[in-house]
Amino acid sequence: MRVIRFGIEGLINSFRIPFFRTYHKTFLAPPKTTVIGMLCNISLKSQKEFFEILEQDKIKLSVIIDNIEGRGKDLWSYKTIDKKNRGKSVIRRDKLFIPKYTIYLKIEEETLYKEILTNLRKPKNIPSLGLDDELIIIEDVEEIDLINNESNRIDSLFLDKGIAYKAFVKNLSSTIELPMSNVTATKFKGFDNKGKRISREVIEEFRQVEFINCEIEFQNEVKSFLDNEFNNRLVLY
Q: Where are the domains of the chain?
């Protein structure tokens, strides 16, 4: 199966978990909507095109956490309508230091495939994941072939859809983050049937399961793939 594979490296990044408002807790890796948003941004696509890609599931992807050098927190000051504290408030935010990811894209539509591949190699806009100041480097953009994974173990993030699984630590001498899951939206609706812009509406959400220095063994049969060159086992979602 033909896919696009590329690497991403940031300096200081954060991917806010929904429902955490006074304290911005972060995912360990960008959710699908964030990656699709980045792809649309570097391709100069409109908001309508972004929502269409999500709604119609035009791009399936997989994310593998290669490394995170460290984690910290900062304080973010913002304006409020409340007159207390001179109309200002502060939020504490989680930050990831030098996160690195390998991302795989499966795109059936040939025109969209070629467009995304071209813009990954030569972005039309400055790449970022989330906020404008959380810039990233896109590197090692390749077209590769995935083969079927004969084992029931994977190294990639996945969406928890009720399948039982076990986690195994790879290397006890390295940083370990055992699997954790948080709800994330996978599809939004941003336009009505007449093409009029509406408030963003979540139409699908699942728990994103993420980990570092672990591998996951599914207790049920799950379709997964193998990147022979990197020895990455992954699921697409």
A: 2-234
**How far apart (Å, rounded) are the C-alpha atoms in residues 211 and 214?**
6
State which H helix or E strand residue 40 sits in. helix 32-42
Confidence (pTM): 0.93
Q: What is the pLDDT of residues 100-158, one digit of tens each?
A: 999 999 999 999 999 999 999 999 999 999 777 789 999 999 999 999 999 999 999 99
**Interatomic CA distance for residues 191 and 197, integer angstroms:** 4
Cβ neighbours of residue 52 under 8 Å, at least 6 residues apart? 58
In sequence order, what are the beta bridge partners of 128?
A: 135
Show Cβ contacts of residue 84 under 8 Å, excluding neighbours closer than 6 positions.
none
DSSP string, 145-168: E-EE--SSEE-S-EEESS--EEEE
Q: Which CATH number does 2-234 carry? A: 3.30.70
Tokens of 38: 């980045």
